Amino acid sequence: MTDLQTVSLDDKYLKPKGRVFLTGIQALVRLPLEQRRRDLAAGLNTAGYISGYRGSPLGQYDQQLTRAKKLLDEHHVVFQPGVNEDLAATACSGTQQAALDGENKYDGVFAIWYAKGPGVDRSGDALRHANLFGTAAHGGYLCLLGDDHTCESSTTAHQSEPAMIDAMIPVLNPAGVQEILDYGLIGIAMSRYSGALVALKCVHDTVESTVSAEIDPARLPIALPDDFPLPEGGLNIRWPDTPLAMEERLHRFKLEAAKAFARANRLDRTVMGGEDAWLGVATTGKAWLDTVQALDDLGIDEARARQLGLRVYKVGMSWPLEPRGLEEAARGLSRLIVVEEKRPLVEDQVRSLLYGQPNAPVIEGKHDRMGRTLFPSWGAINSNQVALAIGRALLERTHDPELAERVAEVEARVAVTTDDPAMLRLPYFCPGCPHNTSTKVPEGSKARAGIGCHYMAQWMDRDTARYTQMGGEGASWLGEAPFSTRSHVFQNIGDGTFYHSGSLAIRAAMAAKANVTFKILYNDAVAMTGGQKMETANLDVAEVTRLLHAEGVQEIHVVTDEPHKYPIGYDLADGVKIHHRDELDALQRRLRTVPGVTAMVYDQTCAAEKRRRRKRGEFPNPDKRVVINELVCEGCGDCGVQSNCVAVQPVETELGRKRKIDQSACNKDFSCLKGFCPSFVTIEGAVLKKGQRRDLTATAADLPMPALPAIEGTYGIIVTGIGGTGVVTIAALLGMAAHLENKGIAAIDMIGLAQKGGAVLSHLKIAKSADEIGSPRVAAGGAKVLIGCDQVVAASKPALATVRAGVTRAVVNLEETFTGDFTRNADFSFPAERLRRAITRATGEGLAEFVDGSRIATGLIGDSIATNLFMVGYAWQRGLIPLGLDALMRAIELNGVAVAMNQSA
Questions:
Q1: Residue-wise DSSP of 167-190
Q2: Distance of CA 242 to the CA centre of its chain
Q3: Can you give the residue ranges of every domain in the chain?
Q4: Cys-Cys crosslink for 887: which of 559, 606, 737, 843, Cβ 3.0 to 4.6 Å?
Q5: What's the pLDDT score for residue 900?
């Protein structure tokens, strides 16, 4: 038993001082609360305003803000989601104008705008205007840039700094959750001082990671520059004003004020190395975390850095780069390596600022001094790449045996390759998803995809291919149609996209007299980012039909699984006809022959959202279930083909493969009944059998206690599984347990579209203190243990890349959970043996254990995440998790997971 710190789940927002366990998203929720508290302490009565549009890696920001509404209200912070990004940006600019007419309720209003990278691009004009107008002296305007560098949950990889440079908005690049909170406060203060908008870069590895952060108002004193004379009249917003006066203030003073502010608060600073250094490393943001890990892998601390001649410069404001600190950091160096992701933002500024200076160092970054690629501008970099770049550079000038050995170890890890996996777990439509039916098109027709869950139809048998940016759905056909022999296409568009901006594409199609049928997929929830409601209370199906009619679309149809919802006299647009979804094929066959723009609204609530609402008693729950009689089933698989439903699963019998309905996954869509089959039985009044909870009195002392592994440096853990089964919850439990024991913890979940049944990998690093952890990602060969809650994901390339032969231990669940491929291929075979061989080959013989976790856990406990909890418990009892049982149990209790633990588990 260990002494645990006292923790509450409310700590993340309310604890005034000390360590709190929170994600980067939660840090952004705490930010306005903290700003209001600081202003009150300074004698200012301010308010806050938050608006924007969600999208990974900021996909859950609006959800967390909504959950914290009571706290936001208490702190005079208004959260108002935007219809789209540029309108939200304009609204944020309006907050800075609140005092111009002397009608202000508060001393100032600080604004926070958020957007995914593509939304940043579309908002360029709004941000440019806002930056020229300027900010209020007690207001401030912070832009959260949600950048997806590796296209994990986007249609393009993106980087927002070039857009900020174009609008002349300074960019702060935090390295981790702690700096998200710190730089957020600094950014608002900088915006007030300089009169400019300030951007905060948010990437997956920082904003979606989880750590123990330090909260203390005294630890972040914010200083005003004493070496920058403000021009007459200051730099803040004023009225009346002229465009040319705004431009002059921005070009002459605002950016210089931002540099002075960065200098006064030491945002850029030398963090390692001495006066005699000859090799320098300059890095920023997520790349700083990779550099910290790289230095740890090379065994380089402050003393070693001085011995080897290395100096490390950390950049907090990546644009515009503050010149005085850089010049000081570069003094005496012969080489300077710039470590950053994507395009050479810092590198180009370093070259420009040091150009022509005597004894300036050779600059390397995207390429080394020989012109070879060093850190590519595509994809992402990792700590191993950084370690090799620094280590090899140092070895060119020193023959240090210890460093050479460390570099060789990294080279060996990087050289390990894994074979193509025997099976991939791609995301797929949920059981009962409306898109299982709505994305079908008649034989001979083709459809175009768009932004939303229906995007996944492209890797199914749906004759759907190609996509556009959000809001462009249908516009690409306007350019393609005049030069194609095809006369008509169907264009899928989500209801959220339609309201966001997609209605304009329909207007463009009307103007072009295009032959296209728009399928507005009305699912009543934004499923890709967590099931949020749209930013309107009145966009129901009737309103959609009226908007379409107003745009001039004459033939409009509603297709639904519940036609009774639309009685005669319902407030639809004139002439709209109602169809049951069984009529979809016939309707589409007719519409493709109708000249011009036609539309159908496919109305069926998101299956995942149905499940959530039913649990809350907010949605009808049919008292009916479907089961398959295995004695009658012939295993033809037509039920899966007809329904495209992953709840239709195989069951192996002595008479061959049959089918079963996974009742825990079934969302009662009943489309599997479309295949005429006498083996299907519908049962009314049935209640699912649940696992029996045992009345166990075992205490921690009764359990056989393993010898817990020692933590040397960082202890890397990889948890793999299927989206929607609680893998992220497991990572959160382990992280909370480490926090309770006052250990350093960093965790990040690799999700993408995984919530739709795809692959999930949770990376965790545990250390004796937070200072010892760099990047939250476990680097190649860096995992001490792999917990495979799903063997398909455990055998994937991303998972096995973290494994080191002879070092990594693995415990893997034997359960064979089929992918969406099975819905289309009745004879699809699960490659269990090949998956297990791949895992064993990667870890080394004897270091991988395979356990029938699903069967055991379901029999003992019966909770929805029972299997994953069991796998963690099994790994812990094998001595693979460096956390005490009391901390694990307290973490489970804090997270509200009801679970019985006994000696067997």
A1: HT--EE---SHHHHHHHHHHHHHH
A2: 41
A3: 22-264, 269-415, 435-610, 622-684, 700-894
A4: 737
A5: 38
Q: Does domain 269-415 have CATH number 3.40.50.920?
A: yes
pLDDT tens digits for 269-286?
999 999 999 999 999 999
Q: Mean pLDDT lowest for which of 47-56, 123-132, 815-824? A: 815-824
Looking at domain 622-684, its CATH architecture is 2-Layer Sandwich (3.30)
Q: Which DSSP state fits 459?
A: G
* Contacts for 175 with CB less than 8 Å, ≥ 6 apart: 206, 284, 285, 286, 288, 289, 314
Show Cβ contacts of residue 534 under 8 Å, excluding neighbours closer than 6 positions.
495, 496, 499, 526
Hey, what CATH topology would domain 700-894 get? Pyruvate-ferredoxin Oxidoreductase; domain 3 (3.40.920)
Closest C-alpha to 285, from 57, 562, 591, 535: 57
435-610 to CATH, choices 3.90.1570.10, 3.40.50.970, 1.10.10.10, 3.40.50.150? 3.40.50.970
Omega before 240 cis (within 30°)? yes
Residue 622, preceding peptide bond in cis (omega within 30° of 0)? no
The per-residue pLDDT for range 210-221, each reduced to its tens digit, is 999 999 988 899
Q: Closest by alpha carbon to 92, among 58, 155, 139, 45?
A: 139
Rounded to 10 degrees, the C-alpha dihedral 692/697/700/706 comes to -60
3-state secondary structure labels for all residues of 540-561: CHHHHHHHHHHCCCCEEEEEEC
Closest CA to 167 of 230, 254, 78: 254
Mean pLDDT for 119-145 is: 98
72-93 pLDDT, tens digit per residue, is: 999 999 999 999 999 999 999 9
The pLDDT assigned to 576 comes to: 96
Claim: this prediction has a pTM higher than 0.85: yes
> Backbone phi, then psi, for 862, in 5-degree steps?
90, 5
CATH superfamily of 22-264: Thiamin diphosphate (ThDP)-binding fold, Pyr/PP domains (3.40.50.970)
